[in-house]
């Protein structure tokens, strides 16, 4: 199988070349038609740049006047004060800009007071109803999340040129470094601003490779700045001849066709472009410029001359996004239109989800032990109904909803787990958020595995604790982060992990994690969502299994979470731990206190399911055997599934979202239900099929599922081509289906 990459196999270079080399006016015409489909005609967004930290940069980008490697006369300055930034943003807004972009001449963001000040700048500008963009160099996942939480709209991080020419321009970082930061930005939910520079001595092929790479980012950047080199004295590119204007027009037109929904920004180098050339760029699909007499350090047309140019061309500055419409003033239609546009944007990115009824053989549910339909559990619930048990709880647990059946299920669950007490929440999400917002204080620090479930991330965010995102399943990285990141006096440090990861199918190294916590005096919280019922003594989970070998685990474990909607075949989630922990949650967890209690019948169902698991270890042993069988069958066809051999989650990475969706459709046509998992659930470029196995299946069922997917295909794909046409049908031809 191809290794998962950051980019999808979409536009080929030949396709990009064919677009670019059309007769100029034909290219512009085509680009204009694409533009008119996706954007309001005649509008150009005005953006204002501000260099918040100028010069002295350790990188050696050959074009850049701010690199410390070159004598360009740019003085290295300190990070600007918040008030200076606020005033500049206010002036930009008054002059008609709707986006404010702050640039720092840094190689990468470093944690500390300067980054905290940048976060304050982002919050300040966001509060002024401007789009806020930053360009600060490389970022890690946690920093991207902090910027997102501060209200950042976009992060600018250019690929600048083709992967092949990159080394001729910059030696102090690699293309891959850029792509990694872009992935963090994307994962944090910040929009991506990524483009390049023309006129640095690159070949035409390099320009097209840049455009191809940008268009094949999955999804493509929302914003694509196309810069012409501003040749600055003192830099290695000082003597580069000016870019031919038509090269700029062609690049913009091609970018517009390749990335219909993106903002294409006619960026640096406009002083060297005639009004006529700029007009052609706008007609070809450029719909934004940087305005104001300075870019970051180099000169640029000022706001007055830009207003005059737009007026001459009959173009309008794009108005600020309308504030959320007031129903009385605007009626329902604008709101419906806005929702339709949002859904259409999801559709374009291959991210629109639709609710569907279950269909075909189940290779996707979390009902690993087939207990959702179990006759014995069903009988227990039916008897309770017959005996007159209420169907609804009629109130929250603290009001009138504390039915005996719920308390009995909690007692049964606690006994199974070997802890003092347990508490049932109405969902796993409610349990994660309730637990974390109760335990974590605002001044605490929480170390979170980068693949944690959304409920754990949201709980941490809402607690206000400082988050440190740690590389997935890397106990050494966790130990290093714990050494590096102290907590303020009187505050606590927490580590939050899952024991079996739902999108990777791999196990957390719980023993090593517990040792790291013990060495650092940190507390551990483990989400056993996919492990409850499948591991350890009586199927109690991976914590119970690991605790037998690792005394440190018992010492550092503060709480564990056990969603009941997976192997237990029910719904809701238990938090298990000490009696005091549970009492604290009853008093403080808002998602518990302010929710109507689950139906008492759920208590009966959970208790019956726990009994079944405790009495029948062969059920979960069987599931783990089927996981091995499915992995082996997939491998025989050339796939390399992720995860641990016996984990019941078997992911197969396909790369682009479209590919995973095509595979999902192909399997559905063959009677097998598997779901494509796409961004934002997983990182861009790592869309996958997530198979799960169930106790009622056989090895023959696993073989059939693998055959339905067919053989792994190893060539380059084209956009929109169904998987079967890409060689997956090869398995059938060989008689394997
Ligand atoms: N240090 C950060 C980084 O490299 O991402 C942020 C600032 S950097 C100045 C932002 C972008 O400006 C660069 O990626 C490059 O594309 C563009 N740029 C810098 N100098 C330029 C020049 N002389 N002409 C055209 N574009 C330039
Ligand atoms: C981008 O692609 N162009 C803008 C913005 N992103 C940050 C910056 C251009 C900088 C030009 C050189 C300077 O003024 O220092
Ligand atoms: Fe530094 Fe950015 Fe300039 Fe490169 S482009 S020298 S990283 S400021």
Q: How is this structure best described in words?
A:
- 41% of the residues lie in helices and 14% in strands.
- The chain has 3 domains: 289 residues, Alpha-Beta Barrel (TIM Barrel); 120 residues, Aspartate Aminotransferase, domain 1 (Alpha-Beta Complex); 163 residues, Type I PLP-dependent aspartate aminotransferase-like (Major domain) (Aspartate Aminotransferase, domain 2).
- The N terminus and C terminus are likely disordered.
- The radius of gyration is 28 Å and the shape is globular.
- α3 runs parallel beside α4.
- The protein has 737 residues and is of the alpha/beta class.
- Strands 1, 2, 3, 4, 5, 6, 7, 8, 9 and 10 form a 10-stranded parallel β-sheet that branches. Strands 12-18-17-16-15-13-14 form a 7-stranded mixed β-sheet, with helices on both faces. The protein has a 3-stranded antiparallel β-sheet with strand order 19-22-21, with helices on one face.
- α17 links the parallel β13 and β14.
- It has 28 helices and 22 strands.
- The structure holds S-adenosylmethionine, 6-(5-methyl-2-OXO-imidazolidin-4-yl)-hexanoic acid and iron/sulfur cluster.
- The site of 6-(5-methyl-2-OXO-imidazolidin-4-yl)-hexanoic acid has 17 residues, from β2 and β7.
Report a brief summary of the structure:
The protein has 28 helices and 22 strands.
List the helices and strands and how they pair.
Elements: H1 13-20, H2 24-38, E1 43-53, H3 82-94, E2 99-104, H4 113-126, E3 131-135, H5 141-150, E4 154-156, H6 166-169, H7 175-187, E5 191-193, E6 196-198, H8 204-215, E7 223-228, H9 245-258, E8 263-266, H10 275-283, E9 288-291, H11 303-313, E10 316-317, H12 327-330, H13 332-348, E11 361-362, H14 375-386, H15 404-417, E12 421-425, H16 428-439, E13 445-449, H17 454-463, E14 466-470, H18 475-484, E15 493-498, H19 510-520, E16 523-527, H20 542-547, H21 551-556, E17 557-563, E18 573-577, H22 579-588, H23 590-593, H24 600-615, H25 617-636, E19 649-655, H26 657-669, E20 672-673, E21 675-677, E22 687-692, H27 699-709, H28 730-733
Parallel strand pairs: 1-2, 1-9, 1-10, 2-3, 3-4, 4-5, 6-7, 7-8, 8-9, 11-20, 13-14, 13-15, 15-16, 16-17
Antiparallel strand pairs: 12-18, 17-18, 19-22, 21-22
Helix pairs in contact: 1-8, 2-9, 3-4, 5-7, 8-9, 9-10, 14-24, 15-24, 16-17, 18-19, 25-27
The protein binds S-adenosylmethionine, 6-(5-methyl-2-OXO-imidazolidin-4-yl)-hexanoic acid and iron/sulfur cluster.
S-adenosylmethionine is lined by residues 63-64, 103, 105-106, 135, 137, 157-158, 160, 197, 227, 229-230, 232, 268, 296.
């Amino acid at each position: 199988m191809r290794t998962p990459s950051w980019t999808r196999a979409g536009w080929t270079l030949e396709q990009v070349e064919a677009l670019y080399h059309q007769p100029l006016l034909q290219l512009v015409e085509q680009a204009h038609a694409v533009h008119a489909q996706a954007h309001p005609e005649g509008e150009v967004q005005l953006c204002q740049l501000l260099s918040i930290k100028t010069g002295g940069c350790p990188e050696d980008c050959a074009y850049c006047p701010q690199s410390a490697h070159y004598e360009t006369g740019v003085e290295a300055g300190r990070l600007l004060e918040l008030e200076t930034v606020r005033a500049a943003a206010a002036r930009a807004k008054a002059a008609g800009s709707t986006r404010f972009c702050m640039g720092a001449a840094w190689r990468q963001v470093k944690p500390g007071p300067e980054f905290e000040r940048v976060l304050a700048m982002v919050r300040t500008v966001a509060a002024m109803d401007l789009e806020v963009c930053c360009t600060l160099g490389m970022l890690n996942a946690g920093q991207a999340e902090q910027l997102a939480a501060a209200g950042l709209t976009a992060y600018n991080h250019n690929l600048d040129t083709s992967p092949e020419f990159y080394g001729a321009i910059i030696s102090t970082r690699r293309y891959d470094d850029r792509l990694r930061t872009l992935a963090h930005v994307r994962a944090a939910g910040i929009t991506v601003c990524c483009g390049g520079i023309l006129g640095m001595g690159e070949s035409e092929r390099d320009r097209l490779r840049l455009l191809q790479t940008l268009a094949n980012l999955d999804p493509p950047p929302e914003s694509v700045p196309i810069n012409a080199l501003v040749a600055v004295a003192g830099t290695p590119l000082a003597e580069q001849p000016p870019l031919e204007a038509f090269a700029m027009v062609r690049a913009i037109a091609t970018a517009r066709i390749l990335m219909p929904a993106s903002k294409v920004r006619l960026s640096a180098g406009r002083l060297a472009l005639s009004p006529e050339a700029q007009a052609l760029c706008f007609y070809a699909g450029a719909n934004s410029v940087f305005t104001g007499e300075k870019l970051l350090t180099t000169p640029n047309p000022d706001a007055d001359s830009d207003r005059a140019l737009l007026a001459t061309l009959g173009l309008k500055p794009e108005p600020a996004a309308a504030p959320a419409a007031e129903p009385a003033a605007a009626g329902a239609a604008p709101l419906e239109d806005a929702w339709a546009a949002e859904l259409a944007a999801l559709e374009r990115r291959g991210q629109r989800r639709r609710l569907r009824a279950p269909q075909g053989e189940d290779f996707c549910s979390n009902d690993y032990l087939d207990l959702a339909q179990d006759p014995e559990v069903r009988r227990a619930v039916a008897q309770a109904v017959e005996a007159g048990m209420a169907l609804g709880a009629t109130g929250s647990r603290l009001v009138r909803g504390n039915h005996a059946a719920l308390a009995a299920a909690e007692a049964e669950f606690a006994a199974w787990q070997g802890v003092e007490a347990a508490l049932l929440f109405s969902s796993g999400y409610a349990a994660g958020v309730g637990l974390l917002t109760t335990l974590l204080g605002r001044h605490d620090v929480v170390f979170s595995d980068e693949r944690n479930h959304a409920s754990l991330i949201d709980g941490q965010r809402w607690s206000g604790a400082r988050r440190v995102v740690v590389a997935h399943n890397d106990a050494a990285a966790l130990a290093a982060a714990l050494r590096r990141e102290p907590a303020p006096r009187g505050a606590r440090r927490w580590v939050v992990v899952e024991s079996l990861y739902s999108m990777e199918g791999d196990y957390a190294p719980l023993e090593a994690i517990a040792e790291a916590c013990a060495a650092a005096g940190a507390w551990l919280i483990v989400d056993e969502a996919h492990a409850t019922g499948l591991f350890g003594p009586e199927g109690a989970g991976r914590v119970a299994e690991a605790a037998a070998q690792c005394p440190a685990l018992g010492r550092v474990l503060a709480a564990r979470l056990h969603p009941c909607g997976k192997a237990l075949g029910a719904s809701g989630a238990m938090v298990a731990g000490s009696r005091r922990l549970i009492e604290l949650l009853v008093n403080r967890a808002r998602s518990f206190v302010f929710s109507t209690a689950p139906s008492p019948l759920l208590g009966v169902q959970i208790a019956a399911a726990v009994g079944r698991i405790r009495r029948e270890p062969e059920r979960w042993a069987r599931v783990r055997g089927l996981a091995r069988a499915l992995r082996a069958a997939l491998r025989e066809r050339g796939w390399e599934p992720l995860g641990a051999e016996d984990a019941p989650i078997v992911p197969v990475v396909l790369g682009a979202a479209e590919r995973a969706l095509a595979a999902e459709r192909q399997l559905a046509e063959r009677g097998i239900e598997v779901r494509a998992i796409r961004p934002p659930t997983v990182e861009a470029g790592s869309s996958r099929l997530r198979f799960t196995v169930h106790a009622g299946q056989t090895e023959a069922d696993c073989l059939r599922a693998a055959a339905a997917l067919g053989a792994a295909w190893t060539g380059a794909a084209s956009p929109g081509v169904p998987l079967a046409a890409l060689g997956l049908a090869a398995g059938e031809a060989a008689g394997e289906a």
